[in-house]
Amino acid sequence: MTKPLLTFLAAASMACTAAAQPFAFQRRTDSVAFTSAGRTVWQFHFGKQRPVPHFYPVCLLDGTVLTDLGPKDHPHHHSLWFAWNKLNGVDYWSEPDAGRTQVAECRVSTGKNSARFQMKLDYVPPAGDPVLTERRTIVVSAPDNQGRYFIDWRGEFMAGKEPVHMKGGTAGGGYAGLSVRIAQTTHEWRIIDSEGREDIAEGDFARNTHGKRAKWMDFSVTDKATGKQGGIAILEHPSSFRHPSQWHNLINPKTPFGYFSPATLWSEPYDLAAGKTLMVYYRIVVHPGRPGREAIEREWEKFSAQD
What we know:
Structural class: mainly beta
Largest sheet: 9 strands, antiparallel
Mean pLDDT: 92
Helix content: under 10%
CATH class: Mainly Beta
Strand order of the largest sheet: 8-9-10-11-21-17-16-14-15
Radius of gyration: 19 Å
Distance between the termini: 44 Å
Shape: globular
Number of domains: 1
Number of helices: 2
Order of helices and strands: HEEEEEEEEEEEEEEEEEEEEEH
CATH architecture: Distorted Sandwich
Low-confidence stretches: 1-19
Strand content: 35-45%
CATH topology: Beta-galactosidase, Chain A, domain 5
């Protein structure tokens, strides 16, 4: 039996088995977790004492962990999270850190195996009023019959009384925005994008996809202990700021360091005028197996047709 067929059968078996298991939510004052047969599938942390709101862990339905939280090489990497880098020269990315991303409000509602988070966040410098205010909506779908689930992430940012100079984390621009840090318990990494490019773990930066513009990116992995395969795709909506984004991708197996991000400030900064807004909008697809480019493109087409 061929390896692709074995992979497909394993993913199908996992989806069917998980679908038969009971799902449940665990709600706390500062987080919400979704479980399958007692195993955490995802957990969203939004406590005001945390540096940034984030998802950790992000798992397949069988509990296979796909993301990493605070690895030694970059302790400020928060699994699946959003953070600007420099706002008016103040660092909101690194920790400890002069700028603060404060959760002013988080309203949580849960449905049949789905959840919705409506948030207000303030980006606050060491002194003075917030320079930027964000209205964030995150909707996590119920798992589908393929064992996938979807996280729709929309952030609407408004400058305060003064303009905001927004800059990424390198000399020209670089990292900032929605980010995923891949679990170090995985290997056999592969990145594919909407433009037909591909990278495998063989260096540092992903030589073919790093810095390139794409509508979507998929990072798939194999769990070292179990051999289970899965991954995370980020789809960017056409209405999102600077679509299609350039991507900041690392795929170094030695550290190990797996990371990818639609980095809207990658090549140049942006000046947001006082009182003006910008919006980012993504769909994150958490999936078993290694879907082909055509399958992910179909998902992007469905997502891109939404308002």
